[in-house]
Here is the input.
Amino acid sequence: MHSVVNLTVHGIGPTNRELDPGEDTTWVSVEQFEQVLDAVVGRQDVRITFDDGNASDLEIALPRLLERGLTAEFFVLAGLLGQPGRLEESGVRQLLSAGMRIGSHGWAHRDWRKMDTEQAVQEIVDANRFLGELTGQPVSRVAIPFGSYDRHVLGRLRQAKVTRAYTSDGGRAKPGSWLQPRNSLRHDIDATWANRVMDGTPPLPLRARRIASRTFKRVRG
Ligand SMILES: [Zn+2]
Here is the structure.
């Protein structure tokens, strides 16, 4: 396989927690979610990931994944488990025993480009260790919160022996790459979105944005 497409799901359906500013744009309906799953069935080149450890991971996503014979990787927030609208620790174990994979989305949903050293240890080292103890198996893959990274963040991840880092840069990925770009489901996707992401080139504005943001990251160093 030359390349894969990574998809990112955040929240699905109703929630009883207050969303962060702008977070509603990443939330999808059950119908939108099912349309994406139906498009993915039978595609060996597509990987599904979940960020934020929302309760909908277990309540809405898991049964629909299992129904379709799909597996996914769930990046949960170690420090927010058990909070309203989030997964409980028992929910993380349920996902795991249902054949899903657990990774880390950090501790408290911070922007990793703006951490001090102490926060970085909590977000990367402590979160991975905590989730490793919770699941009984090593957790060494992370999804970078808000897709926000620079060379310094990647250096910290390498130092912490992270084995795979998922971004939100969009486009296709090399299956074995350490850095894995992903494509986020958004509140306004239509029924054709998944097929367009899987088979087509992204529309020009997105490509231009990505090139611009790469340049920006390079300049920032
Ligand atoms: Zn997130």
